[in-house]
């Protein structure tokens, strides 16, 4: 799946949700930014990467991947809302062994930058760093795409069931 196809899938879901909730003309950027911050917090919680006080291991890989793709949904959705979906952004990177704590903190910072400047550059950097985090968590692009498709379907079903 190309990034263009990925944005197209997200666009269909977003439109469905907006229609379902009568929000077609609303500016949803701030809510989506907060939603993304919350999802990333949930992701960090499942990895337990910052819990120096605990010996409990991280959650199962599948759980972490599910949380990760919720973040992908909101990042793409914000990209669509800000009209960055036509840009040619490369997700392939050699990086990916960054310290998880640093990676999460960097991503939070980038979300703040994107909120302030709403620039294509800050969006691209956020998307890139999020996939580097994915790689550090052990996820290939294929893993992420499969899990994204599965969650996208769940999201449609939930809407159809009046979630
Ligand atoms: O405009 C939107 C709004 C939501 N979503 C997706 C993103 C994410 O995959 C899901 C919302 O997250 P989640 O499934 O965690 O929803 P929740 O309501 O927080 O779930 P729960 O009540 O189970 O915690 O909906 C979109 O793609 N576009």
UniProtKB/TrEMBL annotation:
Keyword Manganese: no
Any Pfam family hit: dUTPase_2
An MF annotation (GO) of this entry: dUTP diphosphatase activity
Keywords: Hydrolase
Entry-linked Gene3D superfamilies: Type II deoxyuridine triphosphatase
Entry EC number(s): 3.6.1.23
InterPro entries to which the protein is assigned, alphabetical: dUTPase/dCTP_pyrophosphatase, UCP030140
The protein's name: dUTP diphosphatase
Organism expressing this protein natively: Lederbergia graminis
């Amino acid at each position: 799946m190309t990034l263009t196809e990925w944005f197209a899938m997200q666009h269909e879901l977003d439109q469905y949700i907006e229609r379902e909730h009568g929000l077609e003309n609303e500016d949803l950027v701030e809510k989506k930014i907060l939603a993304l911050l919350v999802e990333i917090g949930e992701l960090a919680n499942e990895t337990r990467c910052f819990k120096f006080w605990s010996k409990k291991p991280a959650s199962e890989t599948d759980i972490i991947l599910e949380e990760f793709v919720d973040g992908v949904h909101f990042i793409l959705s914000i990209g669509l809302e800000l009209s960055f979906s036509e840009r040619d952004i490369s997700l392939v990177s050699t990086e990916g062994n960054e310290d998880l704590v640093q990676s999460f903190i960097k991503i939070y910072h980038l979300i703040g930058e994107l909120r302030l400047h709403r620039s294509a550059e800050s969006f691209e950097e956020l998307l890139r760093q999020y996939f580097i985090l994915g790689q550090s968590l052990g996820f290939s692009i294929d893993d992420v795409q499969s899990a994204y498709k599965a969650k996208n379907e769940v999201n449609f079903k939930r809407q159809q069931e009046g979630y």
